[in-house]
Amino acid sequence: MSQRKGAMAAVTSSKHEEEMMELRRGPWTLEEDNLLMNYIACHGEGRWNLLARCSGLKRTGKSCRLRWLNYLKPDIKRGNLTPEEQLLILELHSKWGNRWSRIAQHLPGRTDNEIKNYWRTRVQKQARQLRVDANSAVFRDAVRCYWMPRLLEKMAATSAAQQVDPAALLHPAHIAAGVGGGAASPPVHGGQHDATSAPPGSGYGGHHQSYAVDPSPSTSTSGCSGSTPAAALPPVPCFSELSWVVDQYGPYADLDGAGAFDSSALGSLGLDGLDLGPADGDVYPDSTLLDYLNSACTGGGAMVTMMGGGGNAALSSCGGAIMGGHDGDYGPSSWRTDELCQAAARKLGDHHQWGGGI
DNA sequence: AAATCCGACAACCGCATCGGA
DNA sequence: TTCCGATGCGGTTGTCGGATT
C-alpha cells in the first residue's frame, strides 16, 4: 500500500515536473536562439533530446533540431531563390516528386522546408490558376515546356556576363554534382527575408523573424528538356467539334474585338466557360500558360490570334483564368487552334479524352 | 483609415526509419 | 528478435506583413 502510495507520489511528482517544464512553442526568441547556438558551438549538433534537456531550452529536441537546421545553421542561404535554383527544383521535382530533403541536397544552403514552401506557394499556385493538378502530366508538361524555358531565358540574361550556359545546369552530371545553387556563395540576404538582421549572424527582423517579445514560458503563440520546349508538348487532342475553327477561319483565326471570330459559337459547343485570355481591364500574372502555348507555336497548325480587347470579354468573363496575357501587355497573342482544342478539353473535362482522336 | 485578403514562411505534428540495448 | 528512443521526412497549420478593397 505504502509502496503504491510512493508510486502514486512519484507519478504526481513527475507530472508536476512536466508542468514545471512546460515546453515552449511558437516563435523562437533571441535568447533561445543564443542558447541553442552556444550549446551547439560547445557540443556540436545531434542528440537533440539531450540538447533540449541540457541547454536550458524549454523546447523539444525536435523543435531545436528544426530551428537549427532551418534557420540558425551558419550555411543557410537566405533570400529569394535564384532562377537557377528554381530550375533545379522544377527539374528535380519532376524526377523525384515530393522528396524535399533529397532535392534540398542539390541546393546548397537551402532547406527542405524552404523548397517545400516554394513549391506550395509558387508552383502549386500556378497549377491552381491553370486549374490542373500540380502533379498531373499536363502541368508537368507546362512546367517543362514553358516555365523552364522562361527560367533559362532569365538565367541566360543574367548570366551572360558570367559566360554560363544555363542549359548545362540541367545536365544530369551537373545535377549529380549538386551544382546549381551557388554553392560557393556566402549566405545571401535579400528579398523579404532581408535579414541583414537575421540570425545566423545576428539579426532579426526579416519578414517573420521578429522575435517573440515575451519569452514567458506560459506564452503559447503557436505559433522536353528545358531547352527544347516543343519536343515535350502534351498530346494534342483532335476535336472534330472544333475543326470548324480552322475550316472557317483558316490557319489564323482572329479572336480580337473586331468581330472576325464569333465567340458565341463556342457557347454552342459548350465551351462558354472557356477563358481565352485577358479582357479589358483584366490584370493577369506575367507568367501564364498562354505564353507557354505561344511558345509552342513553332510548327504547323493553325493559329488563333488574339488581341487583348473587348472581343474577349464575353469569353473571359465566363470562367476563371485558364489563360493570361503577356507581361503587362495586351498586345497580340497567338493560339494554335489545336492548343485551343486542348484548352477546351480541359474545360470539358470528363467528356473528352486527352490525345484521343475524337 | 479600417477591414479584409493573400502570400510567404516558420514551426508543429504525425509517421517512418534507424540503431542500440 | 523485440523494444524503444532518436532522428528524419513530408504534410499541415499558424502567424505576420503587405496589398487590396
Automatic annotation (TrEMBL):
<dbReference type="InterPro" id="IPR009057">
    <property type="entry name" value="Homeodomain-like_sf"/>
</dbReference>
<dbReference type="InterPro" id="IPR017930">
    <property type="entry name" value="Myb_dom"/>
</dbReference>
<feature type="region of interest" description="Disordered">
    <location>
        <begin position="180"/>
        <end position="227"/>
    </location>
</feature>
<dbReference type="GO" id="GO:0003700">
    <property type="term" value="F:DNA-binding transcription factor activity"/>
</dbReference>
<dbReference type="GO" id="GO:0005634">
    <property type="term" value="C:nucleus"/>
</dbReference>
<feature type="domain" description="HTH myb-type">
    <location>
        <begin position="73"/>
        <end position="127"/>
    </location>
</feature>
<feature type="domain" description="Myb-like">
    <location>
        <begin position="20"/>
        <end position="72"/>
    </location>
</feature>
<dbReference type="InterPro" id="IPR044676">
    <property type="entry name" value="EOBI/EOBII-like_plant"/>
</dbReference>
<keyword id="KW-0539">Nucleus</keyword>
<dbReference type="Pfam" id="PF00249">
    <property type="entry name" value="Myb_DNA-binding"/>
</dbReference>
<feature type="domain" description="HTH myb-type">
    <location>
        <begin position="20"/>
        <end position="72"/>
    </location>
</feature>
<keyword id="KW-0677">Repeat</keyword>
<feature type="domain" description="Myb-like">
    <location>
        <begin position="73"/>
        <end position="123"/>
    </location>
</feature>
<protein>
    <submittedName>
        <fullName>Uncharacterized protein</fullName>
    </submittedName>
</protein>
<dbReference type="GO" id="GO:0043565">
    <property type="term" value="F:sequence-specific DNA binding"/>
</dbReference>
<keyword id="KW-0238">DNA-binding</keyword>
<dbReference type="InterPro" id="IPR001005">
    <property type="entry name" value="SANT/Myb"/>
</dbReference>
<keyword id="KW-0805">Transcription regulation</keyword>
<keyword id="KW-0804">Transcription</keyword>
<feature type="compositionally biased region" description="Low complexity">
    <location>
        <begin position="215"/>
        <end position="227"/>
    </location>
</feature>
